[in-house]
Amino acid sequence: MKNLLIALLLLLPFMTVSANPVSVGDAAPDFSLKDITGKTVKLSELKGKTVVLEWTNPGCPFVVGHYANGNMPAVQAKYTAKGVVWLTINSTNANHKDARSPEEFQKTFTEWKSSATANLLDIDGSVGQTYAAKTTPHMYIIGADGKLAYNGAIDDDRSVNGGANAKINYVSAALDEVLAGKTIETSVTKPYGCSVKYQ
């Protein structure tokens, strides 16, 4: 019994994400978050548009890799130019060493030449937990019908190289299919990166 209790206590930090995560084909849960400029963004007000959710943390080397080599900004720029709404979401706990002020985030995203539509702050981690976001980056695509269309990794290069060795960018492929009115061939993949710092 004592060993079981110890095991449960050790698992507690990893038991914060939703026990019933949203699945591809489900209606994407609505949320309302402020971005780093203080503007409120509400998902339900974006219905009719294709939306990408990118969980991010500038303190994560996997995230840094995707921005340092220009991979993430290039994908953002390509698809926002086609009318896709791209939202980065930071669910880092305010007491974690990776936490930053909105001003610091603004400086970082400017230096990284981010082309995201908005950079959102999920201060209490509730949105991340609702979507069961596990890593930074963890990518989701929501179709114009408001349903979750993709959940998983940015690509198949599961390293800190920022996609330099990727054979396929899952998000780009899925967005091309969505925008062409096609069914996404690969709609679920295993995300990789740093754990989301809910604690």
* Relative helix content: 25-40%
Helical/strand content category = alpha+beta
Percent strand equals 15-25%
Count, helices: 6
CATH topology: Glutaredoxin
Radius of gyration: 16 Å
Distance between the termini: 26 Å
Count of separate structural domains: 1
The profile of the biggest β sheet is: 7 strands, mixed
List how many beta strands DSSP finds: 9
CATH architecture: 3-Layer(aba) Sandwich
Q: CATH first level: which class?
A: Alpha Beta
Average pLDDT value? Answer: 91
Adjacency order of strands in the biggest sheet: 2-1-5-4-3-7-8
Question: What does this entry show, briefly?
Answer:
Helix content is 27%, strand content 18%. By secondary structure, it is an alpha+beta fold.
Short key terms for the protein model shown above:
199 residues; Glutaredoxin; 9 strands; globular; disordered N terminus
What this model shows, in words?
This protein is of the alpha+beta class. It has a single domain, classed as Glutaredoxin, CATH 3.40.30.10. It has 6 helices and 9 strands. Strand 7 and strand 8 form a beta hairpin. The longest helix has 10 residues. The protein is globular. The N terminus is likely disordered.
